[in-house]
Amino acid sequence: MRPLTDEETRIFFEKLSKYIGNNIKHLLSRPDGVYCFRLLKDRVYYMSENLMKHASSVPRKNLLSCGTCFGKFTKGKQFRLHITALDYLVPYAPFKVWLKPSAEQQFLYGHHVVKSGLGRITEATSQYQGVVVLSMADLPLGFGVAAKSTAECRHADPMSIVCFHQADVGEYLRHEAELV
User: Fold this and answer.
1) pTM for this structure?
2) For residue range 138-156, what is the model confidence (pLDDT) as tens digits?
3) Which CATH architecture has domain 2-82?
4) In the chain, what are the domain boundaries?
5) Dihedral sign, CA of 159, 165, 169, 172?
6) Are strands 161-168 and 68-73 parallel, antiparallel or unpaired?
7) Strand ranges inside 18-150, DSSP E
8) What residue range is the signal peptide (predicted)?
9) Which CATH architecture has domain 95-175?
């Protein structure tokens, strides 16, 4: 387990800022202590500094995971955000999409969100902005990328895609072996 390099930190924070903007600082300095991001086997983990100190006593080859996995770096050094980061993205996400109950199941199966399934969208959401997807009861379902801006969504065709699927809580069942 090691700290992220400058290049890895830049790539990781750029991806994270698409979803939570400048609120990354709230993840690192929390009221309950100081938290950090560490890299282990191409995966980025979020943990308290206290937990990091305890984990440093375990040999790297024996350590499977430590903290919450936020995602992983691909072979091409791109960062892919995992669904396990959803609980930390939701409180700080400025842009959100709410789904109608009829569209929730389709999103949880990995499909994009169409206009007919859109319940609400945060005002001033721009095109290709990272959004957190919620049910109408404010239950976090996943996250995605806005395919259309808020203004374009108002005049869109009911079957046009308004949010591209990135990750959803259904992945816990579909890809449980890969999330470790």
Assistant:
1) 0.85
2) 999 999 999 999 999 899 9
3) Roll (3.10)
4) 2-82, 95-175
5) positive
6) unpaired
7) 29-30, 33-40, 43-48, 68-73, 79-81, 96-99, 113-114, 118-121, 130-135, 140-146
8) none
9) Roll (2.30)
